[in-house]
Amino acid sequence: MVEWLPSSSTKILFVIGDPVSHSLSPPMHNKVIRSLGLDAVYLALRVTSDMLNSFISLVRLNNVLGFNVTIPHKVAVANLLDKLDKSAELTGCVNTVRIRNGVLEGFNTDVKGVEEPLKQTGFQGGGIAVIIGAGGGARAAALALLSMGCRVVVLNRSIERAISLRNHFAGKGFTVEVKSLDEAPEFLSRADVVVNATPVGMNSWEAPFPTKFLKRGQVLLDMVYTPHPTRLVKEASEKGVISIPGLEMLVHQAAESFEIWFGIKPPLDEMRNEALRRLRG
Ligand SMILES: NC(=O)c1ccc[n+]([C@@H]2O[C@H](COP(=O)([O-])OP(=O)(O)OC[C@H]3O[C@@H](n4cnc5c(N)ncnc54)[C@H](OP(=O)(O)O)[C@@H]3O)[C@@H](O)[C@H]2O)c1
């Protein structure tokens, strides 16, 4: 068998962020790129905020098919592109860029990353959705849940950021409610769907809120994917809450990005297995 080697015509993909060395995107995408025999390679590139403009200029000059964007560039990148699709325009955040004929177009595949796993639990939409957190992940969750017909309630540590999220969506014609964290027990117990969009629980055994407020039959999505499962997912599942680990969001957002770049639906199981293998070290 002739081994694949990159050449000058190989298509290049990146994930950019700062930090970015922990990213599971390169192994997930490269696994599928190789198994489908595509002439492409996906690399992690640390890009600091002051380098973002230079990075965008460089990708325009080179054989770059696209890139993923992670913390802290999801909002800043949206302002440097030629076009935004609906998901990026409505959230004001970009996690995926496609470069075609020199045109850079931004997408937010985190929205699908929230929507798909929820649908796979049988959740049909409607009811009350509570989002804890008000950053980029929360914006993606809000758009997904609004488009599924939910009443969306956001609770965040800093009320200012929650209000900024509410105002952003109001500007797009959507209603998002903001409540104080003191009201968390009431809203968590009344929710049909709960999303953790904070990093609490990442690489620790903390939970963003006590699972005593959750009830059997509710649906929970924890965006945090390491450890797998998180304390929140473990305790909620034990209570009979339909719990979706962050790994599912990770895999579905990656699959959507892959399809945007290559026009092919990737094998989800291969992506999931590769991510799991890395998570289990
Ligand atoms: N599974 C996936 O595919 C996926 C996709 C996207 C994001 N994520 C994960 O989701 C998490 C949030 O990402 P993001 O991009 O939305 O981050 P972000 O923009 O930095 O927002 C973080 C949010 O969490 C809140 N927060 C941070 N530390 C907290 C603490 N100790 N206690 C309470 N609230 C806290 C912040 O509140 P303040 O406003 O008060 O600072 C903010 O609202 C991260 O862990 C990220 O890795 C996962």
What does the model show?
The strands form 2 sheets. Strands 2-1-3-5-6-4 form a 6-stranded mixed beta sheet, sandwiched between helices. It has a 6-stranded parallel beta sheet with strand order 9-8-7-10-11-12, sandwiched between helices. Helix 5 packs across helix 6. It starts with 10 loop residues before the first strand and ends with a helix. It has 2 domains: 129 residues, Rossmann fold (3-Layer(aba) Sandwich); 134 residues, Rossmann fold (3-Layer(aba) Sandwich). It contains 11 helices and 12 strands. The chain is of the alpha/beta class. The site of NADP nicotinamide-adenine-dinucleotide phosphate (NAP) has 25 residues, from helix 5, helix 6 and helix 10.
Largest sheet, in brief, is: 6 strands, mixed
Number of strands: 12
Q: Estimate what percentage of residues fall within beta strands.
A: 15-25%
Q: What fold name goes in the CATH topology slot of the largest domain?
A: Rossmann fold
Write the CATH homologous superfamily of the largest domain. NAD(P)-binding Rossmann-like Domain
Ranges with pLDDT <50 over ≥5 residues? none
- How are the strands of the biggest sheet laid out side by side? 2-1-3-5-6-4
Please specify the SSE layout and strand pairing.
Elements: E1 11-17, H1 25-35, E2 40-46, H2 52-61, E3 64-69, H3 74-78, E4 83-84, H4 86-91, E5 96-100, E6 103-107, H5 110-120, E7 128-132, H6 136-147, E8 151-155, H7 159-171, E9 176-179, H8 184-190, E10 193-196, E11 219-222, H9 231-238, E12 242-244, H10 246-262, H11 268-279
Parallel strand pairs: 1-2, 1-3, 4-6, 7-8, 7-10, 8-9, 10-11, 11-12
Antiparallel strand pairs: 3-5, 5-6
Helix pairs in contact: 1-11, 5-6, 5-10, 10-11
The protein binds NADP nicotinamide-adenine-dinucleotide phosphate (NAP).
